[in-house]
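hey so i finaly got around to running the thing on Ribosomal RNA small subunit methyltransferase E from Chitinophaga costaii. pasting the sequence first so u can double check i didnt mess up the copy paste, my clipboard has been acting weird all day
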Amino acid sequence: MDLPLFYAKDILPSAKIFTLDEDTSKHVIMVLRHHTGDAILLADGKGYRYRCIITDDNRKRCLLKIEQVDKMPAPAPACAIGIAFTKSASRNEWFLEKAMEIGIQRIVPLLSKRTEKDKFKMDRLESILISAMMQSQQFYLPTLSEPVVFDQLVKQDNTAQRFIAHCLPAQKTYFGDALQPGKEAFILIGPEGDFTPEEITLALEHGYQPVSLGNTRLRTETAGMVACVLMQSVNEAG
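ok and heres what it spat out for the 3d tokens, dont ask me to read them lol
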């Protein structure tokens, strides 16, 4: 059976012992009912896996002895998505959870002309990612940036493969066919109501390829999920 995994932001690879914070200690000792001598895993979100033994099962300050530290291989190539969040917090959180489980490495909240939501509780969003990282037994926490204005982003990003998914009638390639496996990829997903024609033109002028995600019109978070799945599946197949 897999050992339970917990997040420890401040742990260092050189550490020999570590004390869990009060909330995690309570969960480990009171909820999961672990005791002195039990083994657990810690992740720092930077790729390190720590195998630990509980040496003091104090419910407020659980003390661990670190037995083994391993650097897990980083996902390659890096896949990233810029997405205009909706006004529904639950829909945004659902997307973040699933993107983390799939293995997306960078998420950029996108402020386009039609974006419905431009302020976020970043602590809450980061906690969603952390929870999904532990649930999916991964060791790299995606980068979640502060919201970025569309024009600024498309002018500055230099990812090897850059795409924009939009709904306007135009010559577009299916995203799964446009992707080249083994190369970093970044896709932009628009808000409800899509990107404006001016935004699409600007993206194309800066090297973004126009792509389709299928024959049906998708909600923002669904489009984001389809894009994430396609990026991962193409790279795994390649």
